[in-house]
Amino acid sequence: MDIMEKAKELGTMIGSSDEMVSYKKWEESLERDHRARAILREYQSLQTEMLRAAQEDTDKSILDEIKRRLLDKFDEVNECEITRNFIDSKDKLDRLIKKVNDVLVYSISGEESCSPHGCGSCSGCE
């Protein structure tokens, strides 16, 4: 049994999974829709702005304003079918890949990568 052959087989299986097919579909839809791309780009920009402001101990009133704008943009992301489904499909694909990685870690080390009780019970996610 060749490890690289198994890795390629696993990659092929992930590549043809429902999660990947759905992600690719919505990614292509996002690429074709200028408005959806703009909404998502603005949302990501506001997320970055919020993180930067929080790290820099920005005044609470400014943080509240950024948060309000971020929540408004989040509503806009969810109102747009393409952005909503793109984010949802990416989340599902990310969860599949994490589960696969967890199985690999368990198979190699004999230890689960995360407790079913959440990250507070281990130091693996921190």
Count all strands and give the number.
0
Percent in strands? under 5%
User: Which of globular, elongated, flat, extended, rod-shaped describes the shape?
Assistant: flat
The CATH superfamily is known as YheA/YmcA-like
Instruction: Output the radius of gyration.
Output: 19 Å
Strand count, sense and barrel status of the largest sheet are: none
Order of helices and strands: HHHHH
The CATH topology is given as YheA-like fold
CATH class: Mainly Alpha
Task: Report on this structure.
This protein has 126 residues and is mainly α. It has a single domain (18-110), classed as Up-down Bundle (YheA-like fold). It is 79% helix and 0% strand. It is built from 5 helices and no strands. The chain has helices at 3-15, 18-32, 34-55, 60-79, 81-109. Helix 3 packs antiparallel against helix 4. 9% of the residues are buried.
What's the quick description here?
The chain is mostly helical. The chain has helices at residues 3-15, 18-32, 34-55, 60-79, 81-109. It has a single domain, classed as YheA/YmcA-like (YheA-like fold).
